[in-house]
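Input for the complex:
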Amino acid sequence: MFSKAFAVFQKDFHSEIRTRYAINSLAMFIIVAISVILFAVGQEKISEALTGGLFWVVIFFTAMSGLARAFVSEEERGTSLTLQLTASPSIVFSGKLIFNVILVFCMNTVIALLYAALFESFIIQNFLLFFLSFVFGNIGLAISSTIIAAIIAKAGAKGTLYPVLSFPILLPLILSSVQLTLFALDGTTIEQAKFELAIVVSYDVVMLTVSYLLFDFIWKD
Amino acid sequence: MRNYSVSAIDLNMTFGRRLIFNGINFSFDEKGIYGISGPNGSGKSTLVKIMAGLLTPSKGKIIHKSSDKEIIPEKLHNYIGFVSPYLVLYEEFSAWENLIYYEKIRGILLDRDLVKELLKRFLLYNRRDDLIKTYSSGMKQRMKFVFALIHKPQLLILDEPTSNLDEEGKASAYDLIKAKAEKSIVVIASNEQTDLDLCSETLDLKNYKAVN
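Predicted:
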């Protein structure tokens, strides 16, 4: 099964390299969002808490601008029927999920590097905790974004529906990830942050299970 | 080739309050060409999509069997070849790249000789490395036949198979349909009399509009 899912990922990656739709929109959004924050902040020194919050605000809205492409592009081009005739739903979902996980990691690594370079107060005290929250937060973001993209792909007003539907679903993940980032910035130990870490890991497991159960119904009709 | 059969039991399809068809029963269990006809909007495309497992009927069910064993929906795509006006290939890839990705995603090893023969039969072999977006609508239609046949399906479903094809393309398509029907089941949904003339049995959907 993995080789077939990887083939779906390869197809999407090759397609993205040729069309550059998601990469361009994500790159532009990251640059614009961080520039706006920098201009808004000006010479003010912002607190660690605010930096951690703004970090996840940029991640959330950047994800909203590009991650829906996984399914929306198939639906808009009319190729979803072709894909349905070629692979089972679980393979399609796995392939799209691999693509979105890699895209989210690349996107958020760039955002983290830009934050570290441009914001004085973005100094990570507990790197391991930041790494764990970054990894599990990104996986949760990719899983939720992929299944929501599949749901909204067949709808009319996709652009509006995606962030509106994503917000309540992603809220527990975003709140916990913001808290974990704050802990990493103020040097809290992993032991003290284990409750928030458990929430993020549980969120990932629940979303992954629900997504695989739901996807058959979403994909077919 | 294993014995294949497809049968419909009391199929009913509605979109909202609009009845598309009702009470369809059939069983295609012998190799050959079967037709589905009916006026525009009678539900030909809907019925073939249900047959291909792409849509779920409002009532009733479709049963696919291979060697008397029922095929589960997750595996159905391995047994079916489908040509339809709604089918779109990846335009940013060449014909060859499309076929290679389908090979990888299906997890099968394509018979390269068969692929070459199909591309040559549909006059696409010399254009196999060109992007699909540079193809004419007739070439795209011919490419859909190649896509539908590369994995040697046991059931070939053709929705408006000769749309956009010139006389040469139609002749190639008819030869191929006749050859395929000697080994498997071919279902044609069409309004074209020349398409329906190939069929041994035809299901006319205008007879399935009444509510029981």
